[in-house]
Amino acid sequence: MRKYLLLLSLLLLTACGGRRTPVSLAVIGITCSRSSSGATQLATTYTEAIQRAGGVAVVLPTLDSYARAEELLDALDGIVFSGGEDVSPQWYGEEIWNETVHVDAVRDYSDSLLAKAALASGKPILAICRGEQLMNVVMGGSLYQDLPTQFGTEVKHGGGATHLIGLEPGSVLAEIYGTDSLSVNSFHHQGVKALAPGVRATAHTADGLVEAYENEQLWAVQFHPEKDLQAGDTRWLRLFEAFVARCQP
Question: Fewer Cβ atoms within 10 A, N terminus or C terminus of the chain?
Fold first, then answer.
């Protein structure tokens, strides 16, 4: 009963303009950042992408227990781990590298609970930018904390730059787009260093940085497809449509 009450409350929270959303649609949770005052915040790019793809987008609260994370996942059909702050290096056994690293310990803890519950649930996961980094760390991988000083590359990462990524044959991105390369945006200064066990890297930049990885449950991308979709690049709707289709109850 609690599952259905929670699902009803989530649907009511996401209803707009008095329209009712059929329960048969995929209900997809999206993690969020917090403002300096602790308020929940999330760019509309994420919710709009999911809803344009035919799903019901639900902004997830900050959690403080695994039991609550399990209960929430039970009411969802899939989950998106969104971008935002750096993942604390303490989660992969390192100290903060330099002043460019900015973390939110509360969000890290909440997202780690949700990540573990999501993995245990077997439900589809889409991880974007910070989300890609978070899932890699939760599953046992590590990160370059600051690419310019730790990785060194002629490829421009971050600041909204655009660059090409090469796609592995048979990968989700290669299958969706029918190509071996894509032009993507870049808003990150961190990236995958040691790839977590149980996933395979499916996209790289020319300098060798992992730009996407996947397994049967998880699709993870370092770039922000939702930003380009909102800016008018409709090709990225296909990625969200494919993800929503996987989540269909």
Answer: N
- Name the CA dihedral angle for 130, 75, 230, 243, rounded to a multiple of 10 degrees: 80
Task: Assess contact for 38 and 223: CB atoms under 8 A.
Answer: no
Q: How far apart are CA 23 and CA 11, in angstroms?
A: 8
- CA distance linking residue 126 with residue 92, whole number of Å: 21
Distances (CA, A) of 191 to 194, 219, 239: 10, 16, 21
Say how many residues make up the chain.
249
DSSP states of 195-241? PPTT-EEEEE-TT--EEEEE-SSEEEESS-HHHHHHTT-GGGHHHHH
Contacts of 22 (CB under 8 A, 6+ apart): none
**Per-residue pLDDT, 98:** 94
Please name the amino acid found at residue 189. Answer: H
Of 28, 48, 26, 197, residue with least CA distance to 126:
28
Q: What is the pLDDT of residues 47-95, one digit of tens each?
A: 999 999 999 999 999 999 999 999 999 999 999 999 999 999 999 999 9
CA-closest candidate to residue 202, choices 235, 165, 176: 165
pTM above threshold 0.85: yes
Query: CA dist 180 to 164, 191, 235, Å?
Result: 10, 21, 15
Per-residue pLDDT, 23: 52
Give Cα separations from 2 to 5, 45, 69, 138, 164 (angstroms).
5, 30, 14, 28, 46
As annotated, the active-site residues are 129, 224, 226
